[in-house]
Design goal:
The complex is a heterodimer of chains A (222) and B (220). Chain A has 222 residues and is mostly beta strands. Chain A contains no helices and 15 strands. Classes of the chains: A mainly beta (222), B mainly beta (220).
Chain lengths: 222, 220
């Protein structure tokens, strides 16, 4: 049975702006509850995709001053071509060009499945010094074996700010196919060296397509 | 105007404490399974030539008690009046000195914009061994003061209200270092106290926090 509309004063609860209606600890009472500050904005699912792009104002994507912090989560990113790595770039012209200058750091820990080798080191081949190319998330690449992939997280701070550079940082784990399998834990961080608003972010493999995987964009409100 | 009560049984839904009311998969049914979300905004402080930014439970709507098992401070575009490190300390309930004993680790990576230098290293000068000083969240230098320079990251604290365990924290903070170095700092440790902590303060290692936001969230 469809219910009829309630008047705003028909609930015995004191309204609080931006709060939701919830039950309290009594059997018959109401209270207000906070909503989450981490809001799912958009999920993109790869299917032999050349690129996955999040463009403010397109396909329900929000990437502006609505949120001060944005978080991308990567779930089982699988390359079509063996040993290819995921990369990122950003745009200040709503996705027409992904070529903003970036200075970044890249280091990683690794450990082989055979257990005989592991380590931690900075990797100069995967950082950028005012480079406009795509930033690597991986050293080497992800195995395209059926059970292999990359997962992780990537934060972007205040993309719409027009005073400061745009900081980002990510942490990933992946399987590389060398010598029977290597777990690689990579740490990427840097800044897009622009005071223009960043309004689009694009991800791709360094060669070949993204065979499968999900990238979820969240906004963290304040 | 007095509010008239809605009888609890006038909605065809079973109440569940702390759950919100939503529609279920039926066209005209309700349920009470909606959670508000696990990351809850508590308080944002905005620096304006500020010597310190302080979050104290019970003051200015700040919650820092057993309400949440984890707390996250998001630091956004922290800009100092001098090249310096953003740092923090904590207070136990009833204390006022922001001088808890801290044992911590500090390492980081940097890369200069002109590609002249990179490193990944532990910084022994920034860790603490039962020290009571403010703990730097920067490593390998301080935040540059150029107009477009700043630092952003997070500080994650666990189980502050516990009276059994020490209080662990982890952080990651990226910033433009003096001389235009991208720096990725990783600081972690514990406040070595079994007393509950209900206050956290941030300040620069020298000078003021010229600008920037620090936002506190609770994780349910």
């Amino acid at each position: 049975m469809a219910i009829s509309k309630f008047n705003y004063n028909s609930f015995n609860v004191t309204p609080v702006a931006s709060k939701a209606l919830a039950f309290n600890s009594d059997a018959d009472g109401f209270t207000t509850a906070s909503g989450s500050s981490m809001i799912l904005i958009k999920t993109l699912t790869a299917s032999s995709s050349g690129t996955l792009s999040f463009v403010n104002g397109s396909s329900d994507v929000v990437l502006d001053d609505t949120y001060p912090v944005y978080k991308f989560e990567f779930i089982n990113m699988h390359p079509q071509t063996n040993d290819k790595g995921l990369q990122v770039n950003v745009s200040i012209d709503t996705g027409s060009n992904y070529n903003v200058a970036k200075t970044t750091t890249f280091f990683r820990a690794y450990h082989y499945e055979h257990g005989n080798e592991g380590g931690l080191a900075y990797q100069t081949g995967h950082d950028l010094a005012q480079g406009t190319g795509f930033q690597d998330f991986t050293e080497g690449g992800i195995s395209n074996d059926n059970d292999c992939s990359l997962s992780g997280e990537f934060f972007l701070f205040s993309p719409s700010n027009t005073t400061f550079v745009k900081h980002f940082m990510g942490k990933f784990n992946l399987i590389k196919s060398a010598a029977g399998g290597v777990s690689i834990n990579s740490f990427v961080a840097g800044y897009a060296n622009t005071t223009s608003a960043v309004d689009a972010v694009q991800f791709k493999m360094n060669a070949g397509n993204i065979d499968a995987g999900k990238i979820k964009l969240y906004g963290i409100s304040d | 105007m007095a509010i008239s009560k809605l009888n609890f049984n006038s909605l065809n839904v079973t109440p569940t404490a702390s759950k919100g009311i939503g529609f279920d998969s039926g066209a005209d049914d309700l349920d009470a399974t909606l959670s508000g979300g696990s990351m809850v905004f508590i308080k944002k402080l905005t620096a304006s030539s500020s010597g310190t930014l302080t979050f104290h439970h019970g003051t200015s709507d700040v919650i820092l008690d057993s309400t949440f098992k984890e707390y996250v401070f998001m630091l956004n575009n922290i800009h100092g009046s001098a090249v310096a490190k953003i740092s923090f300390q904590a207070n136990t309930v009833g204390a006022s000195g922001f001088n808890e004993n801290i044992t911590s680790t500090a390492f980081g990576a940097y890369h200069e914009e002109g590609d002249s230098g990179t490193t990944l290293e532990y910084e022994g000068g920034l860790d603490q061994a039962q020290g009571t000083a403010f703990q730097s969240l920067c490593a390998l230098g301080g935040i540059n003061t150029g107009n477009d320079s700043s630092g952003s990251g997070y500080l994650h604290l666990f189980n502050l209200s516990s009276t059994t365990f020490v209080k662990h924290f982890t952080s990651r903070f990226g910033f433009v270092g003096g001389g235009d170095y991208q720096t990725d700092a990783h600081i972690a440790g514990y406040c070595n106290t079994t007393a509950a902590i209900d206050g956290v303060q941030f300040k620069m290692s020298s000078g003021n926090i010229d600008a920037g936001d620090i936002t506190l969230y609770g994780i349910t």
